[in-house]
C-alpha cells in the first residue's frame, strides 16, 4: 500500500486529508506538530520505524510550537532515507511570489498549495502528477 505523510495542526484539515487518503487507498503517517514529525523522521533514519517509506509529504507551513513546516521539509530533505520523497507545502496565508519562491527553495519543496485545497479530483491529479514526474 502506498504511504504518504501529513503534517497538519488544524483539526478539520487534518481529518479531511486523512479521509481523502482513505478514499484513495493510501496509508497515512500523520502528525500535528513539527516536533512529532521530526522525531518520526529520526526513527526512520535509525531504522526504528516500521512504516513503509512514504512517497509524498503534505506539510502545513505554520505549525504550533517551535518547528515550522519549512523546517520539517528541510529535515525530510536531509534524511538519508526520506530525501527523495515529494514535498508539498500548504498554507492558508498568501505570500508574495518572491517569498513563495524563497520558501520553496528553503524547504526543498516540490510545490506550494494554498488553502482551501483544490477540489478532491483536481487535488489528486496534482499529487499523482508530481509522483509521475519523479
Shape-level CATH architecture: 3-Layer(aba) Sandwich
* Helicity range: 40-55%
Our count of domains comes out at: 1
User: Main sheet: which strands, in order across?
Assistant: 2-1-3-4-5
Number of strands: 5
Structural class: alpha/beta
| Strand residue content | 15-25%
Number of helices: 5
Radius of gyration: 14 Å
CATH class identity: Alpha Beta
Which residues form runs of ≥5 with pLDDT under 50? none
Q: How widely separated are the two ends? A: 18 Å
What is the name of the CATH topology?
Answer: Rossmann fold
What are the main properties of this structure?
Rossmann fold, 134 residues, alpha/beta, 5 helices, 5-stranded parallel beta sheet
Structure characterization notes:
Helices cover 46% and strands 19% of the residues. It is of the alpha/beta class. It has one domain (3-133): 3-Layer(aba) Sandwich (Rossmann fold), CATH 3.40.50.2300. A five-stranded parallel β-sheet has the order 2-1-3-4-5, with helices on both faces.
What's the topology here?
Elements: E1 3-7, H1 11-24, E2 27-31, H2 34-45, E3 56-60, H3 69-78, E4 86-91, H4 97-107, E5 111-114, H5 120-133
Parallel strand pairs: 1-2, 1-3, 3-4, 4-5
Helix pairs in contact: 2-3, 3-4
Amino acid at each position: 500500500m502506498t504511504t504518504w505523510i501529513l503534517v497538519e495542526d488544524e483539526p478539520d484539515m487534518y481529518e479531511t486529508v486523512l479521509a481523502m487518503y482513505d478514499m484513495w487507498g493510501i496509508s497515512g503517517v500523520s502528525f500535528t506538530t513539527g516536533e512529532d514529525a521530526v522525531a518520526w523522521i529520526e526513527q526512520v533514519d535509525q531504522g526504528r520505524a516500521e512504516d513503509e517509506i512514504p512517497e509524498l509529504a503534505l506539510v502545513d507551513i505554520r505549525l504550533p510550537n517551535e518547528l515550522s513546516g519549512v523546517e520539517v521539509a528541510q529535515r525530510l530533505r536531509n534524511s538519508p532515507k526520506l530525501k527523495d520523497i515529494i514535498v508539498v507545502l500548504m498554507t492558508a496565508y498568501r505570500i508574495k511570489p518572491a517569498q513563495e519562491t524563497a520558501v520553496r527553495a528553503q524547504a526543498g519543496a516540490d510545490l506550494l498549495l494554498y488553502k482551501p485545497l483544490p477540489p478532491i479530483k483536481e487535488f489528486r491529479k496534482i499529487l499523482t502528477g508530481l509522483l509521475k514526474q519523479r
